[in-house]
Amino acid sequence: MSTDTDIEQQDGVGIPDALQRLWTPHRLAYVQGENKPDGDQPQGCPFCRLVEMADEEALILARGRSVYAVLNLYPYNPGHLMVVPYRHVADYTELTVEETTELARFTQRAMSVVRSVSGAHGFNIGMNQGVIAGAGIAAHLHQHVVPRWGGDANFMPVVGHTKVLPQLLGQTRSLLAQAWQAD
In the sheet where 81-85 sits, what is the strand order? Predict the structure, then answer.
């Protein structure tokens, strides 16, 4: 007669090893597509819905005339934020001159703010244009600003496929929003 332990060991599941497990169940929502829009319409777009919420609830750091800065709900690194136009537009070539200018200025400001709060050593900045290019929400353009530090690609993301975030998103939002307003 087989026990559950015998079956698990036969299947290779549950075999003791020296590895520690760090669970990040919040990432499952992203992987499964929770909160992703249906189609290309603004009414289903999370970026269009965010601007109707209070800044703290939406994790919005700052609002401009044509763009806003918001923390990424599923960050690659602490302080990972996005600069998003209010207008529901998919492609960078569709931005007006005013939107393009303010997006660039907000990106510069985001870098300064994150650097002052966290001492980031560098940044990855970019847009994924279209689903095929990796855009999770392709219908609404957004530019990622991802702070980087020497050694931030350590064993956790490489081996454990996990990022360790030292504070809650609300705390990060509060620090960055205060620093954004300081100058």
Answer: 60-63, 67-71, 81-85, 143-148, 122-126
Q: Can you tell me the distance from the alpha carbon of 145 to that of 104, in angstroms, rounded to the nearest whole number?
A: 11
Segment holding 98, helix H or strand E: helix 97-118
Provide the β-strand partners of residue 145. 81, 125
Task: Look at residue 150 and tell me if it is in a domain.
Answer: yes
Q: For residue 125, what is the DSSP state?
A: E
Domain interval for residue 141: 51-182
Tell me the three state secondary structure of residue 13. Answer: coil
The 10s digit of each residue's pLDDT in 5-27 is 444 444 555 566 665 555 555 55
User: What are the pLDDT digits (tens) for 83-135?
Assistant: 999 999 999 999 999 999 999 999 999 999 999 999 999 999 999 999 898 88
What CATH number should be reported for the domain holding residue 126?
A: 3.30.428.10
Q: Which of 80, 142, 144, 161 is catalytic?
A: 142
Residue 19 falls within a domain, yes or no?
Answer: no
In a domain, 35, yes or no: no
Determine how many CB atoms are found less than 10 A away from the CB of residue 109. Answer: 19
Pick from 135-139, 144-148, 151-155: least confident: 151-155
- Residue 80 designated active-site: no
The pLDDT of 138-155, averaged and rounded, is 85
- Domain total in the chain: 1
In a domain, 142, yes or no: yes
